[in-house]
Specification:
elongated; alpha+beta; 2 domains; 10% strand; Alpha-Beta Plaits
């Protein structure tokens, strides 16, 4: 009788209950998709708030660009592109807007307007994902109510069914672990610059916090007359130059971690015990660039590609990093005001 009861349960489970349970559990992956679309939408709304805020235009554009890059990383999913018609165009709009913000050739209100369509698309994805999950839960709940009467007829069947659910639960846990790992990988990609493969502004901030109380050097690098280079050679060649410079900086400053902060601005973070060491690094970078001798057909001074470099030395801390960044940025700005193609380190950062 036990064998017969087991066979009945197996037939019942395989022909009726198991497919419905499997359909329910297979929908849990949609929760991750909904969370990612929600987070991406929030980032875009934060970007609108930054653009409409009362802070300086430069800071507002930089903050909005960072939010847009994070939203892009979360929304750039194959399932979104495959199942939602608005995803492809929205990602293209975000990519185009990011380029315009980095080049500073768009005003705040135009940028805010361009974000409405991607936000609407992400909201649609978010609601659709919630609807799918709700439908799966409703279907499963209705099916469970109908079959619960059958399952109560025999304690043996309930026991065996519990074993089956335990097996399904373990399998779902493994799926959840894989989904968590995939989400972590997506977040890691959101911390990288998609063009050059190096870190972005968020990665720089996290790396500074990971080196609490260590003496670090921060080097900011800006390509001189990059707009003229793009106008003369085209944006594809400009992208190639950005990748080449990222490689050059990495090879010249071997111990440094590199970041692209947007547009033609790079940053390098490295262990630096004193200002003299930081100055040596800056000199080393400029010498490496001169040896590489990248051509610049539109350089006003008839030179190859040149850089403006600013640096500061600081003790890593969440409170000190903004001041160190500001000091390095001021040093870079002074280089630009003195004619570019040079470097300067702030002594008292």
């Amino acid at each position: 009788m036990s064998f017969l009861a087991l066979m009945v349960l197996m037939v019942y489970e395989s022909r009726w209950v198991y497919p419905e349970i499997q359909a329910y559990f297979s929908q849990t992956g949609n929760l991750t998709g909904q969370q990612l679309s929600t987070r991406a939408r929030v980032f875009l709304q934060d970007a609108q708030a930054e653009l409409l805020g009362d802070q300086a235009e430069q800071d507002a554009l930089d903050a909005a660009l960072l939010d847009i890059e994070l939203a892009y990383g979360l929304a750039d999913m194959h399932i979104y592109r495959r199942e939602y018609a608005c995803a492809e165009s929205s990602l293209a709009d975000l990519d185009r807007l990011g380029v315009q913000l980095a080049a500073r050739n768009i005003d705040r209100f135009a940028a805010v307007s361009m974000l409405f369509a991607p936000i609407q698309c992400l909201t649609h994805i978010e609601m659709d994902q919630l609807d799918r999950r709700g439908a799966a839960i409703n279907d499963f709940s209705e099916s469970t109510r109908q079959h619960s009467q059958v399952l109560t007829y025999s304690s043996l069947l309930i026991f065996v069914m519990g074993l089956v659910f335990w097996w399904l639960h373990e399998r779902q846990l493994r799926r959840a672990d894989r989904a968590t790992q995939e989400t972590f990988e997506w977040m890691q990609r959101a911390m990288r610059d998609p063009l050059t493969g190096i870190g972005n502004r968020s990665a720089l901030h996290q790396d500074v916090l990971a080196k609490q109380h260590q003496t670090l050097g921060l080097i900011l690098v800006d390509i001189d007359f990059f707009k003229q280079y793009n106008d003369a050679c085209g944006h594809p060649q400009g992208d190639t130059l950005l990748r080449q410079l990222a490689t050059l900086i990495g090879e010249t400053l071997e111990e440094a971690k590199l970041y692209r902060l947007g547009g033609d601005e790079f940053a390098a973070l490295l262990d630096c015990p004193d200002v003299a060491t930081l100055k040596r690094y800056c000199h080393q970078l400029m010498e490496g660039l001169r040896e590489a001798d990248f051509p610049h057909p539109a350089h006003p001074d008839k030179k190859g590609v040149t850089l403006s470099v600013g640096g500061s030395c600081f003790v890593a801390d969440e409170a000190t990093f903004p001041y160190a960044y500001e000091a390095a940025d001021k040093a870079l700005y002074q280089v630009k005001t003195m004619g570019r193609d040079g470097w300067q380190v702030t002594e008292d950062a």
